């Protein structure tokens, strides 16, 4: 049986936003299995997508060419009988893999001058498109008109996964609000910890039985520790759980699927929440809220749209960080509160129970 290979982006958010491409490919070939080749850090996200038959983890070091290792791995892929490959990263080294594997149809964007390695080549527009239609366009011919009906990303999480993750984290049965205070890109994308702490206080004062979970990778632990320090000695502190670095990505996805709402910087967990159709408040500063917006049925993007933004810098080049500091906790609480009024009793669609 012929198969399709997807070579995953290196970022969780990009992987989630690429999922509609798989929906379109599955609709075209309902009986053709779709495999995903993904970095270990991103692989758990793909495992929560119903279109994926098998997730293969890349054995390569980040940024390294490792030509001999890529050739050996390509030999293994050749034996699996792929009819086509979609190369989502724009790098030369990932385009080498399906070419070395002898996969006849190799689809992707031009990227790093990949002529020959990519033989169905697409070209990005200027200005760039939002990420969901950007990846979905690979399902069609190059230069084809953009689809008006691109599906939303959709992940699935079982009730058993949600319950197991909540039990391991020590969470009760009250409404769960998730904070995603980190941002892999850099500090400029992070809403200040003091603002998160003020929002936690407002939530716990206004929503009976509420719990707040801080999620993120081990790299996000310091900023989450700052939030906990700002709450120290306050009545809200006992209902705030600092889980950054304490959960696997699969467990974090399961907790997000269970939550009443999420407040997030522009990060991978924001897009996970959107793909699970959870209520989302997304906070943007140095990045463009129109480029990678939340796509839940209940979502709000907050951005001051200052003259200096989006600067797309890892750290504020002007030193004031006003694009994020100027969005205060009251504004976010005012945006979040109506969502909690209708959402906290039962998680919405986007997952299988």
UniProtKB/TrEMBL annotation:
Keywords: Glycosyltransferase, Transferase. GO terms for cellular component: cytosol. It comes from the Bacteria. The keyword Glycosyltransferase applies. Coiled coil: none annotated. Pfam families: Glyco_transf_9. This is lipopolysaccharide heptosyltransferase II. The gene is waaF.
